[in-house]
Structures are given as structure tokens and as C-alpha cells.
Amino acid sequence: MSPRTSKPPAVVAELGRPETPEETAARKAQNSANHRNRQTINNLIYSLIATLALVAVIVLVVPRGNPTATKAPVDYAAVAQEAQGSEPDRLLVPKLPSTWTSNNAELRTKTADGVDSWYIGLITPKKQFIGITQGFGANDSWVSDQVAKSRIAGTRDIDGVTWDVYDNRASGSGNGNVDYALVTNAGHSSVIVFGTAVDTEFRTVASSLADQIRSLGGGQ
Questions:
Q1: Dihedral sign of CA atoms 169, 171, 177, 180 in order
Q2: Cα torsion for 172, 178, 181, 184, to the nearest 10°?
Q3: Do the Cβ atoms of 137 and 87 come closer than 8 Å?
Q4: Where is the stretch described as Disordered (predicted)?
Q5: In whole angstroms, what separates CA 72 from the centre of its chain?
């Protein structure tokens, strides 16, 4: 048998000669590094695709509210009817035109200040806010808290009811929603009408409460 001849090393076109062992090792190391880099980039792309797919599923599955939808008006007269009789005075319920709406109505009990109160939040025709708070057995400190510790600016008679006036419109911010407030007492109740509306809208609310306040023994 003739002796087996070994195959000559292949000529590398770029070099014009066979690779040395060192060049072969370097080429394989570079190829391995290139392969790892490609795998890393592919993994990043796959991860990004998976993340985008998950976001798309969440967007499709999670219910979203209509941004133009508004909260349904609160029937404060019905809420008051359910709670009547639980406090020493009858809960006040303003009778207002249909252009007025309410966003909240609740009888607040077991409060931190120990004073039960009946609250109605109103949205005026001019899209301003007026709140009505009727506190039962409240003291002067409680009333002061409701008007953001403002000072009395005078008094105002509206349909036979005398109100203390608190006017913070010129003082700027820092009074929350108490830009203006009217306060009177009747029976066991301290009645506060407060908010951001104009004088005519405050008069509308105060007038709608006048008969009820007088029936509680207030107005003077």
C-alpha cells in the first residue's frame, strides 16, 4: 500500500497563502464573537417584539372610559330623603333650575371633628362650584374651618335671611374652594354656602334655601 499523503492546507484568498495556526485561531475567535453579537441583537429584537405585543394586548383588553363622558348628576333630593330624620334638623334641599347640577351629596357622620354634616356639591350654569354644608351642633371653630379661617367681611340679607359674608376673592390662592362664603345659623344647624361662583349664583342658592332656613327658626 502506498503511503497516504496529507491534503495541503487551503490557501486563503485574502492572504494568498495558507493560514498560520495563529491566524486560524484568531479567525475562529472573531467568528465566535460575531456570532454572539448577532445572537444578542436578535434577542433584543425578540424581546422588543414581545414587549410591544404585550402592550398591544393590554390596550385591547383593558377597558377605557370615554374621555368626553361626564359623571352622571347626583339626585341630592333623593339622597336627602333617604337620610331625613337622622339629624336634629331637617336636611336642607335647594330647589334650583334644571341648568344646575350636582356632583356629590352625602350625610357625613363619624367625622374626625365630631360634627355630623349634610353636604351638597353644585355645578352652576356658568360651570363654577358652590357647596352647601349644614353642620349639626357645630361650634365656632368648626365654622371657621369650613370658611378656611377667613374673617367676616360684613353681612348680607337675602330673602329675609341674614348671612355673614366671607369674601376671599381679592386674597388670591390658599383658600381652596372658599373664594366666597355665606354663613347663617338656624335651629341646631350652621349653614355654609361657599364656592367659586359669582354673586348672582350665590344669591340663587341662598334664596332657594331661605324658606327652609326660616322654618328651622333662623334668618335673623
A1: negative
A2: -140
A3: no
A4: 1-35
A5: 16
- Per the listing, cell 422588543 goes with 48
Beta bridge partners of 160: none
Give the residue among 96, 91, 156, 90 at the shortest CA–CA distance from 124: 96
Query: How far is residue 211's CA from residue 220's CA, in Å, rounded to a whole number?
Result: 13
- Torsions phi, psi of 134, nearest 5? -115, 105
| Separation of alpha carbons 202 and 183, rounded Å | 12
Residue type, 129: F
Mean pLDDT per block of 10 residues along the chain (220 residues) reads: 60 63 74 75 79 70 48 93 96 97 96 95 97 97 94 96 94 80 97 97 98 86
Length reported for the chain: 220
